Amino acid sequence: MSALQRRGFLAAAALPALGALPGCGTARPGGAPLHEIELVAYPEAAALRLPGRAPVAAWTYGGTVPGPAIRAPQGSRLRVNFLNRLPAPTTVHWHGLRVPHAMDGVPHLTQAPVPPGGRFVYEFDLPDAGTFWYHSHLQSAEQVERGLHGALIVQERQPPAVDRDLTWLLDDWRLGADGRLDEGFNRPHDMAHAGRIGNVVTVNGRLPQDLAVRRGERLRLRLVNVANARIFSLQFDGHAPLVVALDGQPVTPHAPAQGRVVLGPGMRADLILDATGEPGASHAVGDVFYPRAAYDLLRLVYGADSLRGVALPAPSMLAANPLSEPVLAGAQLHQVRFEGGMMGRLHTATLDGKPMAMAALLRSGKAWSVNGVAAAGHEHGHGDAPAFEVARGQTVRLRLVNATRWHHPIHLHGHSFRVLARNGQPTAHREWRDTVLMAPEEEVEIAFVGDNPGLWMLHCHVLEHQQGGMMASFRVR
Ligand code: C2O
Ligand code: CU
After folding, report:
1. Which residues, at least 6 apart from 455, have a Cβ–Cβ distance to it below 8 Å?
2. Which residues have a beta carbon within 5 Å of ligand 2, which is an ion?
3. 366 CA to centre of ligand 1 in angstroms
4. What pLDDT score does 16 carry?
5. Which residue, 5, 56, 192, 212, has most beta carbons within 10 Å?
6. What is the value of pTM for the model shown?
7. Which residues of 306-345 are buried (b: 16+ CB within 10 A; e: fewer)?
């Protein structure tokens, strides 16, 4: 085994950062090895520490923002003993993991909210390796913004050989002039426009730090956008990263389009980044999504020595996860149309069964609709008929139509889907995703096999848009 392979092996065998119990990793009779952790949600007065500022209070998993990175091997079973010590009810959603319906963490739909002082045991198998995350799904525009999110990494059986495996949880915070978190959640203006964009960007809950690298090093970078609304478009000055997975699912290794890795809220990308700079050099990693507000996130700073002098072979594709391949011939096709928001067409939608014009919708705290229906909320919105139904084992093709002037990362629960086409043009990689970013006025075609029975959420992951009605359900029966 080369040093490089050994590192990959050790990374795969490493124990979780927090919460490993004695029984962890032991085989259960007749089942997958069980990986058990404790997860406690509670407020922490000094969770976010920014240099030169007073500490910022947040709601946390385990006292830190982000919460502990949960790591478990593919094929194992995860049990999370969750305790809510927040002053509000909550639930935990396992974003992108194909879990059974009862474990999906959607309040009122898959479970009762966990009250303050209450517990819930989440337990599910981990069929797919990849980069996932977990977050609150109750009042998420408030609770995720307050800090309730963390990475969940399911380790491949044969991880690619890399020198370092790094995770960047990209977030932003809206802090007031007093330095505290602005508690005006779900402001009507944010809801009807791009969502709550913050004024302080963090990586792993800290101001972005320069990353020391050595020439010849091969990094795996797991990028996770946990922000409520901010879209990131990262550009690696002087480097040629390859995308090897999207939303946790392997993809043919490829250079990102226009050299930019674009991540809407909820989305992930795994990159293989070879440090090809000269010793002593420094290169910016820029975020250019909002052209008039482009900035350098951080810099890659080269040490004086090299790690290796020879270029490594191109990375091969990661082993595919056991997803059901859509069969398009004869598949049912449904249109899912998203409308609303400012600067769009005059919009009317049905809320709680009543047709309403935009002004009345805004007065009711809504701004968006899915197939003409503004979702009232988890508490009472499930009276709305599902947007579509699919028989178990059948392929469904969805034409997602963004009839708005805004970007929307559309997330489906319980399933990953292939992205087939954008505005009628086939995609280059037919990538698997659980969240697809739609540009204004764009049409995106996706397909998946409904193989996970239940009534599942489909929503925009700009959390203010979700709260503002951009949410629906679909049933696999
Ligand atoms: Cu990441 Cu329905 O959520
Ligand atoms: Cu949206």
Report:
1. 101, 109, 382, 386, 473, 474, 475
2. 408, 460, 462, 465
3. 19
4. 39
5. 192
6. 0.94
7. eeeeeeeeebeebeebebeebeeeeeeeeebbbbbbbebe
